[in-house]
Amino acid sequence: MRLIYSLLWWLALPLVLARLWLRGRKEPGYRQHWGERLGFYGAPMAGAGPVLWVHAVSVGETRAAEPLVDALLAAYPASRIILTHMTPTGRATGKALFARHGERLQQAYLPYDTASMVGRFIRHFRPAICILMETEVWPNLIAVCAARSVPVVLANARLSERSLRKSRRLGTLLLDAARGITLVAAQTQGDAERVRSLGVARVAVTGSIKFDVVVAPAALETGARLRSAIGARPVLLCASTREGEEELILAAFQQARASLPSDVLLLIVPRHPQRFADVEAMVAGRGLRVQRRSTLALAPAGAAQQGADAAGRATLPADTDVLLGDSMGEMFAYYAACDCAFVGGSLLPLGGQNLIEPAALGKPVLIGPHTFNFALVTEDALTAGGAVRVADAAQLMQTAARLLNDATARDSMGQQALAFANQHRGATARTLALLPDLIVVPHP
């Protein structure tokens, strides 16, 4: 099965590269660093300590990896980290998050999953361990790591029932790969049981590392400056929205204007940057006044509490209906600037997104009916009173109207969300405690 899988990779490679080129029309990052995707890299990493390999496919996984990366560098002071991604947005997020580590952390694209490409990567970087974040299971990568005695850890692992069924349909390919994983640190007991059913020998329940993310002061400062530019208007944030959801949200927003505060601002942050222009056109096509975050001048750092006017900068025009969040790496700032947050990917059957970030900032969280990728954490947040599930976009606006018109209810729900987030911290330390017997300096 792995031989057939590898052959399919080689046959598909011209189409894969063509798709990269086409995607590069909207996201130029897809046209960069192609050599890395094929397993060719530049000069070796500086330093002599062990190389710890962390793979975070895109933005969400990269942000989730932040506490673990910081903890690894602190626990292994002689070590260096090679952080790999699959998307330009993940790479850009990593650059923003980890620039402070300097030469101790290098970024690259993960090569495509053929034995020769992965082999070149491992020969070049000589990692002591491979840590895959959340759901990344690559058959050839795991097989090559096993052949070269590189332990493979799946950290912050989650596996839904739907993903488990898909894995079983792939037969021995995924089952053999799962059995090649040295250790799985699962988010929940349910995740652990599903992983064990695939044949993984060593599985531990550590919780979600995402609860351990520490909000950088700079993000809070940006959020305060953004809020200052917006002014006293109530802000409903719809974060990480996916294709098809914005249309539902905008229609419901227009229908619910009478029940919402008259000066409410709808802040929409699409999950994928290549859709920014399409969403802007969609908003304008409905007759709503829209402004991009990238065109909004903010007060200088440190001046937010004086107000944007005091700093001599333009504020958001009062007749703006929708602010489009078209910046990268500012999700915490958007959450900090809002009064109530809806987490996207959940109005349509897409599995939902991480609701921990708004909860950690003490914001009331609204979530749609489709949250199978984050089932337990969502149920826990609902039980704790920090989140409310809505059936559709109309109910989203109804619930938002209730919260935005009732400061007491809004503050109470935000405090419950914060308590929920604080209660679940500690997964990073539990994961780190599992690694000492696995991290060894590789032989030449």
UniProtKB/TrEMBL annotation:
Domain 3-deoxy-D-manno-octulosonic-acid transferase N-terminal positions: 32-213
Pathway terms, separated by semicolons: Bacterial outer membrane biogenesis; LPS core biosynthesis
Keyword Cell membrane part of the UniProt annotation: yes
EC class name: transferase
InterPro entries: Glycos_transf_N, Glycos_transf_N_sf, Kdotransferase
Reaction(s) the record says it catalyses: lipid IVA (E. coli) + CMP-3-deoxy-beta-D-manno-octulosonate = alpha-Kdo-(2->6)-lipid IVA (E. coli) + CMP + H(+)
Keyword Transferase: yes
Protein localization: Cell membrane
EC annotation from Swiss-Prot or TrEMBL: 2.4.99.12
MF (Gene Ontology): transferase activity
Role this protein plays: Involved in lipopolysaccharide (LPS) biosynthesis. Catalyzes the transfer of 3-deoxy-D-manno-octulosonate (Kdo) residue(s) from CMP-Kdo to lipid IV(A), the tetraacyldisaccharide-1,4'-bisphosphate precursor of lipid A.
Annotated family: Belongs to the glycosyltransferase group 1 family.
Protein name, UniProt field: 3-deoxy-D-manno-octulosonic acid transferase
Organism: Duganella qianjiadongensis
